[in-house]
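Worked example

This section walks through a single chain of length 381. The input is the sequence exactly as stored; nothing has been trimmed or padded.
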Amino acid sequence: MVKRDERVLSQKIAILGYGARFDLCGSCFGGESRTKHPLGHWIYPVTLPDGQRVNVLKILLSNRCIHNCFYCVNRVDRCHKEAASFTAVELVRLFATLYHQGMVRGLFLSSAVERDAARTMTEMMKVVEILRFKMQFRGYIHLKILPEVSADFIEEAVRLSTRVSVNLEAPTPSALRCIAPEKNFEDIWNTLRYLKCLKDKRVARFDFTTQFVVGASGETDREIMQTTSLLYREMKLARVYYSAFQPIAGTPFEDLPPTSTWREHRLYQADFLLRRYGFGFEELCFDREGNFPLTVDPKTSWAVRHPEFFPVEVNQAPFEALVRVPGIGPVSARKIMTIRVREPLTQPEALKALGIQVEKALPFVLFRGKRFTRGLQLSLL
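Given that input, the structure is written out below as tokens.
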């Protein structure tokens, strides 16, 4: 009987861990979201708010769903789906085992909506409450908030979690109707607004995120980044995540072409420009269709279109100018500013030693007035 129970639990872990791969919770820059951990799909590396990097147990409570989102692996009408659910006690035991073995240091808990949102959210909250109150776990917990739940659930979730997320899935109401006609964009947006309210009132110390499915609704990168910019500016989100649409058999979108992961990559690069580099939405450069060119990164696109800003003198430029140079990020810009106090940078090798992508930076910089390339690389676009 014990062996049978262990076998059933192992099957649940495999099904619900694998199913959680579509809900992003950590840095997915550079395609990291699709990397399988050696220990299984349910072990997932994330960067915590303090910058520390740890492994978390990333798993669904249930993959049984009442919704019929056209792209989703868990949609209610999908045939041949392996259905599984944890009880709160089962999931806590699993986490405790992995934690004590040193395999995970945190939890990302999501779920499909089984029967109704309140019932599912109640079971998810039980998991968190047992961990916080009975096991005295004080580590990282990221909890997915189901968009249909009441304010009471939301308030309790932010009090007990390090991070919560509510997924918009699409950047506009019309785009959401294309992929999830049962869901209401305004309701989800209002949930995000309520989270911002709770954060402003300092009800608890938490941050919150959202996620877009990219390419399933015909939305443009311009629409995605316009909504992203609004979320960062007005809602104060910690992160926006992007998941390139991949068709799944047994769904209405199974015959749609997959979205290039390069498109996802470009969105993350543009996201970094908004969050870390001081760019505004109006400075992002799109093609005629409203998308980012896949052949060049967004910062280089901006640099090529603004020759009046360059070249930048690496020995004198302020931080805000250095980070606009292709190949130079916030960390390397600070290194440049520290080193040039002691001695000037006179050769490209000095940048290379700092880990900077010299071939990208050279057309846009001067070393004590000297340039090492001819003009801007306008041929990049």
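What to look for: Residues 2-19 form the longest helix (18 residues).
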